[in-house]
Design a protein that fits this description.
about 240 residues; alpha/beta; TIM Barrel; 8-stranded parallel barrel
């Protein structure tokens, strides 16, 4: 199982939100580019970078900073997946031009599925479809609105489009370290042939082992790394 450190950006800082709520934000670094080196030194192979300002505004807001982070990551041999506010073909192309190895789309996959299907064909393996779910239903617009679409339905559609992977987040657990939704994540992985990346709730090495043992192929780690609940080097060794 691949362990992917998360760097969520807001106002140029690396932050974490609780349950996606901007009013429950904790700032961890005002030098996000330096975090790339920290995670590379611990043995990471990929980074998960999210523009939270873009997610809430609906348009990429921190591309220069993300570009600098990608350049540092590539210099250290890390891949980078980028998301947050990527809701058009132009935004996807801008992220690719900035050097992103993978681009995460969520709201766009709900609103313009035909476009995302076409982009999956144009960019084989490089689009990750985010399935951000609350009570099994996909949320959109920075998790502020419900789409009415079931998580499993979107997962099957995205796999049929040719998406490179799915990023599954249980919103109610995100940023709380109370444990991931292992059963739902594993069930989703059982429905599709492409990798499912678990996100939200990991707070211990035992949580990682539970995901690994359930057959989940990758996991994003955020607050647990910043608050020292999980050591990245040890997590990578265990997985």
């Amino acid at each position: 199982m691949i362990v992917i450190p998360a760097i969520d950006l807001r106002g140029g800082q690396a932050v974490r939100l609780a349950e996606g709520d901007p009013g429950r934000m904790t700032s961890y670094s005002d030098a996000p580019v330096d975090l790339v080196d920290r995670f590379a030194d611990a043995g990471a192979r990929r980074l998960h970078v999210v523009d939270l300002d873009g997610a809430f505004a609906g348009d990429a807001a921190q591309l220069p900073l993300i570009t600098a982070m990608i350049e540092r990551a590539h210099a250290r041999g890390l891949e980078v997946e980028v998301g947050g506010g990527i809701r058009s073909e132009a935004a996807i192309d801008a992220a690719i031009d900035a050097g992103a190895d993978f681009v995460i789309v969520g709201t766009l996959a709900i609103r313009e599925p035909a476009l995302v299907a076409a982009l999956c064909r144009r960019l084989p393996g490089r689009l990750i479809v985010a399935i951000d779910a609350r009570d099994g239903v996909v949320a959109t617009d920075g998790w502020t609105a419900s789409s009415g679409v079931a998580a499993g339905s979107l997962a099957r559609e995205a796999a049929a489009w040719g998406a490179g992977a799915l990023l599954y987040t249980d919103i109610a657990r995100d940023g709380l370290q109370g444990g991931p939704n292992v059963a739902a994540t594993a069930a989703l992985q059982g429905e599709v042939p492409i990798p499912v990346i678990a996100s939200g709730g990991v707070g211990s090495l035992a949580d990682l082992e539970a995901l690994r043992d359930a057959g989940v192929q990758a996991v994003v780690l955020g607050r647990a790394l910043y608050e020292g609940s999980v050591d990245l080097k040890e997590a990578i060794a265990r997985c």
